[in-house]
């Protein structure tokens, strides 16, 4: 059984690197639709895949030229930044007002976690049954007397 | 107890509203230059920062042309009105360069290959800088394409044109500025 498996494993070891390289090559190969949604039309300030302006057409032609030259997606994006600046990529900058796009979700997430932690701590501290006592669930003496009288009447 | 829970939420909401207000106020168009030049005043340029030169490795800025009358022309080859205007701008450059002035082109939001093709096609002989993402001209209160700004020999902005220039418009600010001493 073990002897029969050895040739099979050898075949798999020989084929696997080739298949893996093919997959990597496929992943690295750039395509216009794959890049378009990660790039901005600088004039319209929308993603390139939904832009029809002259600027967008020129950007698309530039990308298509780079793809035809055989550049990978990462290389195409680097060339775009070189030619048009970092704002050409569809991601907020890490400076100025756009820094808020990174900071606000972090702060909001941190605040939510802190709120949940604080609430959980309070729940743990509160003794069982304290809520009922604090809510004044015990009736006053008049009500208690009236309740007793009505229960007694009910028993008769 | 309840107030202690709600005050951080109130502060966070106020901060978000403040952030929104800041974003709205800082993305508006600055009309300071238009208003001042319309009153006949001359202002320092909104920015003097350098930009990469088109078709070269170096950088350039308005400071390089101190003492000259400069017609700053904002253009791009993808902009049809800019292309229509370029022959007139090139003629203005020939006139200016003969009298101690120059056109300084600011090519906006395009790759250098496309811009250089236009330079060759229109036979542009004036220097050009690249405003890759349009942030430079935005500081000048840019609203569209093309636009032109006239800079006097002291480096101050004397006139602004938010549309394509005409020969008639060029004839108004340029000759008197060229006659001024450096």
* Main beta sheet of chain A: 2 strands, antiparallel
Structural class of chain A: mainly alpha
Quaternary structure type: heterodimer
Unreliable segments of 5+ consecutive residues of chain B: none
Largest sheet of chain B: 5 strands, mixed
The stretches of 5 or more residues of chain A where confidence is low (pLDDT under 50) are none
> Can you give the mean pLDDT of chain A?
80
Mean pLDDT of chain B: 92
Shape annotation of chain B = elongated
- Which two chains share the most extensive interface? A-B, 20 and 22 residues
Radius of gyration of chain B: 21 Å
Give an overview in words.
The complex is a heterodimer of chains A (156) and B (182). Chain A has 156 residues and is mostly helical. Helix content of chain A is 68%, strand content 3%. Chain A contains seven helices and two strands. Chain A has helices at residues 2-28, 32-36, 54-68, 73-84, 99-125, 130-134, 141-155, and strands spanning 40-41, 46-47. In chain A, helix 3 (54-68) crosses helix 4. Chain A is rod-shaped, with a radius of gyration of 34 Å. The mean pLDDT of chain A is 80. By secondary structure, chain B is α/β, with parallel strands linked by helices. Helices cover 42% and strands 18% of the residues of chain B. Chain B is built from seven helices and seven strands; from the N terminus they run ααβββαβαβαββαα. In chain B, a hairpin with a 6-residue loop joins strand 1 (51-52) and strand 2. The termini of chain B are far apart. The model of chain B has no long low-confidence stretch (mean pLDDT 92). Chain A binds chain B through residues 42-43, 54-55, 57-59, 62, 83-88, 97, 100, 104, 108, 111, 115, and chain B through 8, 12, 16, 19, 22-23, 26, 76-80, 109-114, 132-135.
């Amino acid at each position: 059984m073990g002897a029969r498996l050895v040739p099979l494993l050898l075949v798999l070891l020989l084929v696997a690197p080739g298949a893996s390289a093919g997959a990597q090559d496929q992943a690295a190969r750039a395509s216009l639709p794959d890049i378009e949604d990660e790039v901005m039309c600088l004039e319209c300030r929308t993603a390139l895949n939904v832009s029809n302006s002259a600027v967008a057409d020129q950007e698309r032609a530039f990308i298509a030229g780079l793809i035809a030259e055989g550049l990978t997606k990462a290389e195409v994006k680097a060339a775009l930044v070189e030619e048009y600046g970092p704002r050409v990529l569809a991601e907020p900058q890490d400076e100025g007002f756009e820094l808020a796009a990174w900071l606000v979700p972090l702060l909001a997430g941190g605040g939510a976690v802190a709120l949940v932690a604080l609430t959980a701590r309070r729940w743990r501290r509160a003794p069982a049954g304290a809520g009922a006592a604090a809510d004044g669930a015990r009736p006053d003496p008049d009500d208690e007397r009236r309740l007793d009288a009505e229960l007694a009447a009910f028993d008769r | 107890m309840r107030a202690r829970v709600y005050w951080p939420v109130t502060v966070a909401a106020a901060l978000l509203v403040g952030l929104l207000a800041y974003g709205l106020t800082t993305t508006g168009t600055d009309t300071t230059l238009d208003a001042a030049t319309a009153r006949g005043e001359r202002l320092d340029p909104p920015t003097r920062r350098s930009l990469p030169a088109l078709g070269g490795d170096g950088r350039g800025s308005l400071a390089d042309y101190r003492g000259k009358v400069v017609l700053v022309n904002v253009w791009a080859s993808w902009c049809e009105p800019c292309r229509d205007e370029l022959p007139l701008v090139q003629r203005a450059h020939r006139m200016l360069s003969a009298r101690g002035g120059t056109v300084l082109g600011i090519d906006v939001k395009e790759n250098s290959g496309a811009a250089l093709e236009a330079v060759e096609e229109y036979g542009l002989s004036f220097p050009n800088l690249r405003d890759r993402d349009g942030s430079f001209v935005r500081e000048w209160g840019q609203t569209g394409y093309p636009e032109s700004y006239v800079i006097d020999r002291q480096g101050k902005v004397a006139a602004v044109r938010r549309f394509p220039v005409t020969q008639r418009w060029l004839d108004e600010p340029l000759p008197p500025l060229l006659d001024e001493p450096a």
